Amino acid sequence: MKAMLEAGVHFGHQTRRWNPKMSRFIFGERNNIHIIDLQKTVKELKKAYQWIKEQAAEGKTILLVGTKKQAQDVIKGEADRVGMPYVAEKWLGGMLTNYSTVRKSLARLEELETWEKDGVFRVLSKKEVSRLTKEMTKMRRNLTGIRGLNRLPDALFIVDPAEEEMAVSEARKLHIPIVAICDTNCDPDVIDHPVPGNDDAARSIKLFVSIISEAINEGRQEFEAKKAAKSVEGAEAAMAASGASADQAAAAEAMLAEENAQGDTSVVQGTERAAEAESKVG
Question: Distance from first CA to last CA of the chain, Å, rounded?
Fold first, then answer.
């Protein structure tokens, strides 16, 4: 809680800008500023941490969203650190609800980058190169964070859901669960796992994002450990099956050898009986 106090997590918005639905998380007010109850922040953050960790431990994808200036760098950095997609520049309408179009835009970006790499730009006019370069730059800025997102995310973590209203709306339409840092001007009822806290101060945002990212990191480590254990089990099963097959082959070979030996004995005995019969006839 000391770190939260130092980061200013408890400072909400001006009292005139509040959302009454946040009242259950508000401790009081000071100088016309709402003060968030940090005990409730800790309680909700622990629940969100555990939930996020469980999702990551199941191999699920969590999209980190924070487009306000003070959130951009930490969202990018932490998402890259834990290997999750992010949106830090601009939420494009339909990023979730019209995902097929977003995939087409990503394919277009890859196409332009291939043209640039293969020297196609060198044979085009300066005007055309300028147009394509601007198009590519814009798409890189807006889409880089989701380039590895091959399907819809399993959950969203949002800094300031009031600011990211479009992301919240699209996720709710698709029943994608949301964890969000909710300041006193937010509506916590549209968030599955609201965590009350200052979503404007850079230090507060950094604290929250780093904590949630650590939950993701712990969950991913569990997921990778389980996956590695399954691989070892599979290899051991394959080796055991291979050993059983070898034993079966050896047994079959021994049986065949025994049958051949018995066959040879029968031939010898038959030859001896034939010779004996012939001598009697003679």
Answer: 116
- pLDDT tens figures, 195-230: 999 999 999 999 999 999 999 999 999 999 999 988
Task: Give the Cα separation of 264 and 179 in Å (integer).
Answer: 80
> If we measure between CA atoms, which residue out of 73, 221, 218 comes closest to residue 159?
73
pLDDT exceeds cutoff 80 at 114? yes
Enter the pTM of the model: 0.81
Which domains, ranges and CATH numbers included, belong to the chain? 1-94+156-221 (3.40.50.10490), 97-151 (1.10.287.610)
d(CA 93, CA 252): 68
Residues 124, 132 contacting (CB under 8 angstroms): yes
Write the CB contacts of 197 (distance below 8 Å, at least 6 apart in sequence). 4, 9, 10, 36, 41, 45, 181, 182, 183, 204, 208
